[in-house]
Amino acid sequence: MEFKETIRKRYSCKKYSDRPLEKEKLDAILEAGRLAPTAKNLQEQHIYVIESPEMLAKIDGVTPCRYGAPVVLAVAFDKNNVFTYPGGKRDSGVEDAAIVATHLILAAADEGVDSCWLNFFDPDKAAEALHLPENEEILMLLDLGYAAQGAGPLPNHGSRKPLTETVSYI
Ligand SMILES: Cc1cc2nc3c(=O)[nH]c(=O)nc-3n(C[C@H](O)[C@H](O)[C@H](O)COP(=O)(O)O)c2cc1C
């Protein structure tokens, strides 16, 4: 798919059919995450693929926002392998994981796979439910699957501020 069309086509899907996600498509999505840039090329991300009924039930225990998706990715990062920027006030963990996650959602759209970025959960409870090691922090969950019949973008999908409100030439 052409890049601009991929960006236009992506939306947050909030109702999935029970159509399974093909392995090749999941692999292509994960590969796009692998190629994401990270600060100092640290690649501190760790992505968990959740597709068993037992683990999906655990996701349902920490968020109401799976919406029936057959696959959920949890994007985490290694807190002990981040780059601390000069000044010491910020480090790369959250933003590197967010770049990886952005690659994943755009790659999903490119594959014709619907998705939704989730942050409506307690990260500590999610880490416990998924048995993440102590050194990892979870950034986001990503629903993946195919929209149920009749599902589509919410009305706010088309509501974006004009560039005049968000861009300044200085
Ligand atoms: C950082 C982030 C967190 C989000 N968390 C949730 C969430 O927990 N649950 C949910 O249903 N949607 C969530 N969304 C989806 C947004 O509600 C949605 O992206 C936004 O309303 C714009 O809609 P669109 O993606 O269809 O353009 C999240 C999106 C982003 C970018």
Order of helices and strands: HHEHEHEHEH
Q: CATH H-level name... which superfamily?
A: NADH Oxidase
Percentage of residues in DSSP E strands = 15-25%
Largest sheet: 4 strands, antiparallel
- Strand arrangement in the largest pleated sheet: 1-2-4-3
Mean of residue pLDDT values? 97
CATH topology: NADH Oxidase
Kindly report how far apart the N and C termini lie. 35 Å
Chart the SSEs and their pairings.
Blueprint: H1 3-9, H2 23-34, E1 45-50, H3 53-62, E2 71-78, H4 93-110, E3 114-118, H5 123-129, E4 136-145, H6 163-166
Antiparallel strand pairs: 1-2, 2-4, 3-4
Bound molecules: flavin mononucleotide (FMN).
Flavin mononucleotide binds next to strand 3.
What does this structure look like?
- The N and C termini lie far apart (35 Å).
- This protein has 6 helices and 4 strands.
- A 4-stranded antiparallel beta sheet has the order 1-2-4-3, with helices on both faces.
- Helix 1 packs across helix 4 (93-110) and helix 2 runs antiparallel to helix 4.
- It has helices at residues 3-9, 23-34, 53-62, 93-110, 123-129, 163-166; strands spanning 45-50, 71-78, 114-118, 136-145.
- Helix content is 34%, strand content 17%.
- The structure holds flavin mononucleotide.
- Flavin mononucleotide is lined by residues 11-12, 14, 65, 116-120, 153-154, 156-157.
